[in-house]
Amino acid sequence: LDGPVLVVVDDAEHADEASLRALTTAVRHHRALPLLVVLGMTSMTDRVADMVSDEIRLEGLDAAAIAELAAQRGRALHPAMAAALTRHTVGNPRDALALRDEVPAAVWTRPDATLPAPSHVVADVAGRLDRCGAQGRALVEALAILREGAALGEAAQLAGLDDPSTAIDEAAAAGLLAQWSDFDPRLRDRLTRAAVVSQMGVSAAGAAHRRAAQLMSDPARRLH
Questions:
Q1: Where are the alpha helices (DSSP H) in the chain?
Q2: 33-36 long-range contacts, Cβ below 8 Å, gap at least 24?
């Protein structure tokens, strides 16, 4: 090599085995080379974990930056909607811009509007749900309906599960759960929740909401 070389691999979690082996060989067996390999990924996978010597986690953009991105695309956002979009996407620019392009213009005039998941997230979650067993899918749907703060017992009862342990294993294996304790499983994020509800369909989601209301002893949670 005539000089330092930078290799950047975006979406590295989807890289093929041959490419990963070639990069690993270059890094581990040719240490004299002035080579830096940067892997960009949304989640660490076992296939690339052994290659990583240092990790930098990028935080999401703030509401002002999300609004500026939308403006650059010719789509102005009211500050309230920019804040709502930022919370919903945790500042992820790809997700925020996808929603800005996909959601009808009328929605952006209503600060109280419920935002969906972008189509690429819906497709990803649909595939993960298909890989879930029946119990895992039932638990994921219950968690999506109950939202944050639901106890495992409530979710299991809504899902009709006497023992949710198998369901937790299935949902975790499908990559639908965030880090959790044994008694406090949570969906990955708000977009996952929105995608799960959209996969359920209006009728099934409505029926699940009504069943969930019957399970709640707190009047405020029941009304919500």
A1: 17-29, 46-49, 63-72, 79-89, 93-102, 119-131, 134-146, 152-159, 165-173, 190-200, 202-215, 219-223
A2: 33/1, 33/5, 34/1, 34/3, 34/4, 34/5, 35/1, 35/4, 35/5, 35/7, 36/4, 36/5, 36/6, 36/7
Exposure of 44 in the CB half-sphere (CA atoms within 13 A): 10
pLDDT in tens, 75-126: 888 899 999 999 999 999 999 999 999 999 888 888 788 899 999 999 999 9
Q: What is the pLDDT of residues 180-200, one digit of tens each?
A: 665 678 899 999 999 999 999
Residues contacting residue 20 through CB under 8 Å, at least 6 positions apart: 47, 48, 51
Task: Say how far apart CA 52 and CA 24 lie, in whole Å.
Answer: 10
The answer to whether residues 152 and 184 touch, using CB atoms and an 8 Å cutoff, is: yes
Q: Indicate the angle between helix axes 165-173 and 134-146, nearest 10 degrees.
A: 90
The Cα–Cα gap between 135 and 209 comes to 18
Token pair in block for residue 81: 């909607």
Q: What angle do CA 75, 76, 77 make, to 5 degrees?
A: 115
Query: Are 175 and 112 within 8 A, CB to CB?
Result: no
Q: What is the pTM of this model?
A: 0.78
Which backbone phi and psi does 38 adopt, to 5 degrees? Answer: -115, 120
The answer for residues whose C-beta is within 8 angstroms of residue 141's C-beta and 6 or more apart is: 159, 196, 200, 208
CA–CA separation, 211 and 215 (whole Å)? 7
